[in-house]
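Appendix B, record 7
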Amino acid sequence: MIEALLHYHWEIFITLEILATVSLLLFLVFRYALKKQSISYFFLIIFFMLLGTEVILAVVVYRETGEISAFTIVVTIFLLYALTFGISDFQKLDRYIKQKVGKWKNVDLLTEKDKQRMERAKNPKVIARNYFLWWLTHFGVFIGGHAYFWVTYGKHDEGIMHFLTDWSWYAAETTDEGPFHDEIIGSVSQLWILIFVIDSIVSWSYILFPGGEKQSD
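Structure tokens (predicted):
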């Protein structure tokens, strides 16, 4: 059993993520489109059970391997997102489904609080603030994560300034020239750096130029 989990842990995790996404969508469909409240809660419970299964899977893999692998990092990132920004994104999706189903059935499913939040979300200042908070959080996690990588897997003999002042290692075909001894950590770091740069460009474009207030549908 344990050997199977270790061998297929990526496949199991991806399957759990797909099932979790489907569960959330079914929750919304049964809640608003089909008006089946009791059944909708069943899918919400399934969603949380799947998240719990992901936690158990990550713990089992960590205990059996004894190391923080790329898998452990990815699962942790997904869970942190689900418990932080994922909640806000789900609320946005919830309001969006309410709005679309309401138009389809010619009824108003949005509460006054929903409408206020939707109008507030169109305010350029709110848009800029939300993107700044997101970027600041990503920046903190990025720095904290790489500090841990450096302390645990860093090439301390060469010194961190060597890699910060000479980025030729980033374009190398392998991670051997990078700042970390562990190849997987090196690959995760390179991918994360790319994602952080792209996220920074997008986020700061909204922070500095949020644009005019969007019009209501």
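Remarks on this record: The chain has a mean pLDDT of 85. The chain has three domains: 1-77, 84-114, 122-217.
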